Amino acid sequence: MLIRRRKPIPSSEITDERDYLDRRKFLGVAGSLGLAAAASSILAPSLLACTPGEGSADTLRSTSASGLEDTPNSWEQITTYNNFYEFGTDKEDPSRNSKEFRTRPWTVAVEGLVKKPAVYNLEDLIKPERAEERVYRLRCVEAWSLVIPWLGFPLAGMIKRLEPLPSAKFVEFETIYDPKQMPGQRREIIPWPYREGLRMDEAMHPLTFMVTGLYGKTLPNQNGAPLRLVVPWKYGFKGIKSIVKIRFVEKQPLNSWQQIAPDEYGFYANVNPEVDHPRWSQAKERRIGEFKRRDTLMFNGYADEVASLYSGMDLRRNF
User: Fold this and answer.
1) Which of 10, 14, 21, 62 is positioned for an S-S bond with 53, CB 3.0–4.6 A?
2) Taking Cα atoms as reference points, which of 225, 203, 230 lies closest to residue 300?
3) Residue 252: helix, strand or coil by DSSP?
């Protein structure tokens, strides 16, 4: 079974985030407005994703690493400790510097080896998908991790609708380039715009997720609004943010960090405690909000689901 689905639980049991309303409270309010029937269904994501309380807790699905019980980090932790160099290199910079970042209107260009290339309005591109919630761990190369209740949809559905050609073996993603809004892009920290890529079978895997929100709310700017990628068995830098371009290609694309430091950052970036970063060990990690260190799990704990993708590969060379 590729995706482990637990019995749906009230939001109050998976997080203490005050604004994340549980189903009973929300339906009580919605019922008084005559909207209970609408509130109890899953809502397709839009530019606004879901506002607090939208979508009943009975319809939300949580995914944890191989059945491990992970308590999500708080809203404050998730939204104030970020890597998003477009807004600055300190962890606190994105939340400080992205407040005025405009995410509406938003377009995504689809290019390359695909039957339906076009520049899509974001709402048109993602509207056919059905919103769901998954609790994923975000493991960063710097040996820290977060557990986040993402709102979004599997990337595979979007790819199928766009109809890539048989010659398309990889998917490349690109972040918006807008130095006027993104102060970090005024410095040559990396070759802008930021680029990432996946092999086609990785992109089509059911765990690969396109995110439009978190904690049932619109995705905050500092976390990659309005559309970002999450690949939970890989290091966090693979989760490209504020996507404006999706390109289907035949040859393996060069991702930004691989371009900068190929000895430190590979294309695959699978979480692997046996392969250290040249400047630090990857065998342990620290969950934000905790002092203790944990053992790093192979493929971030998703080995049962994704190890078959790399059967026969040398994971030390293909890091």
Assistant:
1) 21
2) 230
3) coil
Residue 53 confidence (pLDDT): 33
Tell me the C-alpha distance between 140 and 81, whole Å.
Answer: 12
**Ranges of each domain in the chain:** 63-310
CA gap 143, 90 in Å, rounded: 16
Confidence of residue 309 (pLDDT cuts 50, 70, 90): very high
Region at 29 (left for phi over 0; alpha for psi -120 to 50; beta for the rest): alpha
Count helices and strands (H / E) in the chain: 10, 12
Q: What is the pTM of this model?
A: 0.83
Q: Are 25 and 39 in contact (CB under 8 A)?
A: no
Q: Which helix (H) or strand (E) holds 132?
A: strand 132-139
E strand or H helix at 247:
strand 243-249
Taking only the tens place, the pLDDT of each residue in 98-142 is: 999 999 999 999 999 999 999 999 999 999 999 999 999 999 998
192, 256 contact by CB (below 8 A) = no
Those residues whose C-beta lies under 8 Å from the C-beta of residue 69, and which sit 6 or more positions away, are none
Q: Are 171 and 243 in contact (CB under 8 A)?
A: no
For 67, other C-beta atoms within 10 Å of its C-beta total 10
Q: Is the domain covering 63-310 a CATH 3.90.420.10 domain?
A: yes
Percent above pLDDT 70 for the chain? 78
